[in-house]
Design goal:
Helix content: over 70%
Shape: elongated
Number of strands: 0
CATH topology of the largest domain: Helix Hairpins
Number of domains: 2
CATH architecture of the largest domain: Orthogonal Bundle
Radius of gyration: 57 Å
Structural class: mainly alpha
């Protein structure tokens, strides 16, 4: 192999490899679809010209057929009038018209066949174009999917799950520590002395409200003569006072002392 042939082969190989890299299948297929669609108007114009020729020949045939009928009538009229010279001239025109009619009829048959073939070719091209367009769209969709998968694969290659796992574990430990600290603070807040004193104060308030209610009922005569409020029974020291009433009164006294000290 000569030196020039080897250089040519290397150049073609390098050029082909470079074209393969820069060639975008999606763009090529889209351009192919546009080229096929652009040819449809050209085919329609060609078919229209063939059909126009057919129609023109059909009109010529009709005119020649009428001319033959008229010349035949003129020949007969000339013969009846004894004008053989005029009849002879019309006969010559009739023969020429008949020849033209036969030739036009043959041309019309050929034009009709050409028109049918042109329409058939145009329809076949449109059908093939639609088929190729559908295939091209499927290929474009597959190319986009392949591109997306390639990008995903590149992303997964650069994804180091070990580093991210350690980050997740670190953040989980921080969140768990914050949750534990918050729960501990909440527990301390609910078990503090202030909280217990607030509970006692609410209980004392409920006892005072119940005492007031009993006083109103006694004033209105809704209670018996021997009934009295728990606080008055405790102050009188009667033996009918229950342990629960005594405990409630002690709590009330403690709450009052606490308020006075504050």
């Amino acid at each position: 192999m000569g030196l020039w042939a080897r250089i040519t082969r290397v150049f073609r190989a390098s050029t082909g490899a470079a074209l393969d890299k820069i060639e975008n299948p999606e763009l090529v297929l889209q351009q192919t679809i546009r080229d096929m669609r652009d040819r449809v108007p050209e085919l329609n114009n060609s078919v229209a010209q063939v059909m126009a020729t057919e129609r023109l020949l059909a009109k010529n045939k009709d005119n020649l057929a009428k001319q033959v009928v008229e010349l035949d009538s003129k020949i007969k009229a000339s013969v009846k009038m004894g004008r053989d010279d005029i009849a002879t001239a019309y006969i010559g025109q009739l023969q020429q018209a008949q020849v033209d009619l036969e030739r036009t009829d043959a041309q019309l048959e050929m034009a009709s066949a050409a028109s049918k073939n042109a329409l058939k070719a145009r329809d076949n091209y449109v059908i093939n174009m639609k088929k190729r367009t559908s295939e091209a769209m499927q290929l474009i969709s597959a190319a986009k999917q392949a591109k997306l998968q390639e990008q995903l694969a590149q992303t997964m290659e650069g994804f180091n799950i070990g580093d991210d796992a350690s980050t997740f574990n670190e953040m989980r430990e921080k969140i768990e520590r914050r949750v534990a600290s918050a729960e501990a603070k909440l527990q301390l807040g609910t078990s503090s002395v202030d909280s217990q004193m607030q509970d006692i104060e609410r209980e004392a308030m409920d006892i005072q409200l119940q005492d007031k209610l009993l006083e109103y009922k006694q004033q209105m005569g809704m209670l018996g003569a021997g009934s009295s409020s728990p606080s008055k029974q405790i102050e009188a020291g009667t033996p009918e006072v229950s342990d629960e009433d005594v405990l409630d009164q002690v709590i009330v006294n403690e709450v009052n002392e606490a308020k006075q000290s504050n």
